[in-house]
Amino acid sequence: MIAAQRTLFVGDVHGCLDELQALLKKLAPSSADRLIFVGDLVAKGPDSEGVVALVRELGAQSVLGNHDDAVLRYRRAQQSGKEPRLKPGHLAVARSLSEADWAWLEQRPLFLRVPEHNVAVVHAGVVPGKALEAQARDDLLAMRTLRPDGSASSRMEDGDLWTAHYKGPEHVVFGHNAITGLQRTSFASGLDTGCVYGRALTALVLPENTLVSVVAKRAYKDIGP
Predict the structure, then answer these.
(1) Closest listed residue to residue 93, CA positions, set 137, 40, 19, 56
(2) Domains in the chain, ordered, with CATH?
(3) What is the structure's pLDDT at 207?
(4) Number of neighbours of residue 207 by Cβ within 10 angstroms
(5) Gyration radius of the chain's alpha carbons
(6) What span, in angstroms and rounded, lies between the C-alpha atoms of 10 and 60?
(7) Taking Cα atoms as reference points, which of 196, 164, 160, 209 lies closest to residue 183?
(8) How far apart are CA 131 and CA 147, in angstroms?
(9) How far is CA 183 from CA 72, 81, 103, 193, in A?
(10) Running along the chain, 225 residues long, what does each successive block of 10 average in pLDDT?
(11) DSSP, res 3
(12) What are the counts of helices (DSSP H) followed by strands (DSSP E) for the chain?
């Protein structure tokens, strides 16, 4: 197996297909490069179906994001004969996806390891001191901060950013927190730079340890959870 020339980690796309295509043009990935997304491929932006189709076509990897998970919950409920409550945006995504898209999303893991870079990829965060396998599912999908007692929270006002307390051993690449935006510490890189909110779509390139970004065409959504 030929070693990847580069590993390209891409922040939360949220259906922003035009911006993803522009970012990929700047990155110019080769067949030897490895392309990994931090989740939340879908929802809020204009073309979730197109994003999922492109990521699948590229043979890229992605962890599961909380918005990806929301549409999957809808799918599973429907299959069991229920009609779950869903935000209109998520419902539109769910109605747009093909069977191949669903099958691919169902296979997304909660975390990925990239041992050649000593990197772990999650969507939202990790509780320091816990192995990846021991992390709570909801924390991997939605946490932003740590409460004073060390427990995880999705709410910014509940405590400190988890990255302020995380000291490895793996470097964690993640997304989810567009409120804070780009985060770079010795042990973590947060890549949600709020593309869907009119800011930018960002990638981290290893081993160069450089950032590549494209500016959003417009704000598709007001910032929120």
Answers:
(1) 40
(2) 7-66+110-215 (3.60.21.10)
(3) 97
(4) 11
(5) 17
(6) 10
(7) 164
(8) 19
(9) 28, 42, 32, 9
(10) 77 98 97 96 96 96 96 78 72 87 95 97 97 97 97 96 97 97 98 98 98 97 75
(11) P
(12) 6, 13
Q: Which two tokens stand for residue 197?
A: 């909110």
Give the three-class secondary structure for 96. Answer: helix
Q: Residue 198 to residues 143, 195, 222, 223: CA-CA distances in angstroms?
A: 23, 5, 9, 9
The terminus-to-terminus CA distance of the chain in angstroms comes to 41
> What are 55's two structure tokens?
């990521």
| Phi, psi for 210 (deg, rounded to 5) | -120, 160
In which order are the strands placed within the sheet that holds 188-190? Answer: 111-114, 119-122, 171-174, 188-190, 183-184
pLDDT tens digits, 129-162: 999 999 999 999 999 999 999 999 999 999 999 9
